[in-house]
Amino acid sequence: MTNTETATLGGGCFWCVEAAFEALPGVVDVTSGYAGGHTTEPTYQEVCSGETGHAEVVRVEYDSDELAFADVLKVFFTVHDPTQLNRQGPDVGSQYRSIVLAHDDDQRELAEAYIEELAAEGVYDEEIVTEVEPLGTFYRAEEHHQDYYEKNPGDAYCTFHADPKIEKVRKLFVEAGE
């Protein structure tokens, strides 16, 4: 029996973040979706317009006997650039912002403390712009966005953007035994 907990994170295109977390032992499920905005039942096209306020996010369900929320944060801040405001690589717009959508006060406090720790250690040359907000409603993305990398491994976008994130997770968190 697993003790499942959930984190909701946005770090650019959800295809890439989803694929990176799916490579992590202890992750039970990853679902791509939208959150953090004001539109109910948003579609991909609406979110891409930047008018909904939503970010592309992933809901990561993990076995808390294998991973702590702190571990999830460590992976999240490794697989995206938290210093890029409203963008990740070629993806530009508030829908691609760096955001932790806290499920409770403990997650919010842990995320804020981790960001402060990263800043104090000077891990990044630029200021961390990751938002930490309470999770409102999570909207599951359309089915063709779920497991996108797995379904489209030869997709040029995935090859160029997701593959390096997956390799980073495998190298730093799987092979290193973390």
In short:
The chain is an alpha+beta fold and 178 residues long.
Account of the 3D structure:
By secondary structure, the chain is an alpha+beta fold. It has one domain (4-170): Peptide Methionine Sulfoxide Reductase, Chain A, CATH 3.30.1060.10. Helices cover 37% and strands 23% of the residues. The protein has helices at residues 14-22, 44-48, 69-79, 105-121, 148-151, 156-174; strands at 4-11, 27-35, 55-63, 87-88, 91-92, 98-102, 131-134, 139-140. It has a six-stranded mixed β-sheet, covered by helices on one side. A two-stranded antiparallel sheet has the order 4-5. α4 (105-121) links the parallel β6 and β7 (131-134). 40% of the residues are buried. The model has no long low-confidence stretch (mean pLDDT 92).
Would you spell out the secondary-structure blueprint of this structure?
Blueprint: E1 4-11, H1 14-22, E2 27-35, H2 44-48, E3 55-63, H3 69-79, E4 87-88, E5 91-92, E6 98-102, H4 105-121, E7 131-134, E8 139-140, H5 148-151, H6 156-174
Parallel strand pairs: 6-7
Antiparallel strand pairs: 1-3, 1-6, 2-3, 2-8, 4-5
Helix pairs in contact: 1-6, 3-4
In helices, the fraction of residues equals 25-40%
Low-confidence stretches: none
- The percent range for strand residues is 15-25%
Order of strands, main sheet, comes to 7-6-1-3-2-8
CATH architecture grouping: 2-Layer Sandwich
Structural class: alpha+beta
Could you give the distance between the termini?
22 Å
Order of helices and strands: EHEHEHEEEHEEHH
Q: How many helices in DSSP terms?
A: 6
- Tell me the domain tally: 1
CATH-defined topology: Peptide Methionine Sulfoxide Reductase, Chain A
DSSP strand tally:
8
**Radius of gyration, CA atoms, in whole angstroms:** 15 Å
Query: How is the biggest beta sheet arranged?
Result: 6 strands, mixed
Average pLDDT figure? 92
Shape: globular
Name given to the CATH homologous superfamily = Peptide methionine sulphoxide reductase MsrA
Task: Just give the CATH class.
Answer: Alpha Beta
